[in-house]
Design brief:
- The chain has one domain (about 35-205): Roll (Nuclear Transport Factor 2, Chain: A).
- The protein contains 5 helices and 7 strands.
- The protein has helices spanning about 1-15, 15-25, 40-50, 60-65, 90-105; strands at about 65-75, 85-90, 105-120, 120-135, 140-150, 155-165, 195-205.
- Strands 2-1-6-5-4-3-7 form a 7-stranded mixed sheet.
- β3 (about 105-120) and β4 (about 120-135) form a beta hairpin.
Length: about 210
């Protein structure tokens, strides 16, 4: 039995990346209409897809297409009353959790700036943001941290972690541009100002 388990682990650990999402991708009923060919585009698309008015249905099919099916969502909450410093969700858990809340209360999240580090098909991104619901009960700024991989001519988000700004932990000035522009090519997401501040470091091109 032990040898069988070892063999199974070896087989699955050697499974190439495209095999992990090939079946998942084939189940998609709608091709991506969003910019997944650039890092700026795919991270801005995530915010665009979760943003919307009260009772506005989100396009979760397009949202899923931004991510690897094994993607993780991690929220850091230092002020948690339950003592739960971090909360982690998989892709489907995240959609089930926030989908009804966003639809009920409305939710808008705008990018403020972006810093990118890229090396040979992997990327690490810090994206500052401002967010609010449309009932007036929630408003915050913070930083989204993305890990991405490049495969089959496009980027995929493999995980995202976010933490809100606090009185003792303000977003560094260099992480914030003048304001936010939607990098998908559409109009800004309820934004009143100009271009994202970008800081890109490419260690090695693909």
């Amino acid at each position: 039995m032990k040898q069988l388990l070892v063999l199974i682990l070896i087989v699955f650990s050697g499974t190439p990346l495209h095999a992990q999402y090939l079946g998942y991708q084939n189940n998609q009923t709608e091709p991506s209409k969003y910019n997944v060919e650039s890092i700026e585009g795919i991270t801005a698309s995530m915010l665009k897809l979760i943003s919307g008015n009260k009772n506005e249905k989100r396009n979760w099919v397009a949202f899923r297409d931004l991510f690897l099916p094994t993607a993780q969502f991690i929220f850091l909450d230092p002020k948690s009353k339950t003592g739960e410093y971090s909360r982690s969700y998989n892709l489907e858990e995240f959609i089930r959790l926030v989908g009804p809340i966003y639809a009920k209360n409305g939710f808008i999240e705008n990018p403020l700036g972006i810093r990118i580090q890229e090396f040979n098909g992997i990327a690490n991104v810090f994206q500052s943001f401002e967010a609010k619901n449309l009932t007036g009960t929630y408003q915050a700024r913070g930083v989204n941290s993305y890990q991405l991989v490049y495969h089959s001519g496009r980027w995929w988000i493999s995980s995202t972690t976010w933490s809100n700004e606090t009185v003792n932990a303000k977003i560094p000035r260099e992480y914030i541009g003048d304001a936010s522009t939607d990098q998908t090519g559409d109009s800004p997401i309820n934004s009143n100002s100009g271009q994202n501040k970008k800081d890109r470091i490419i260690l090695k091109k693909r």
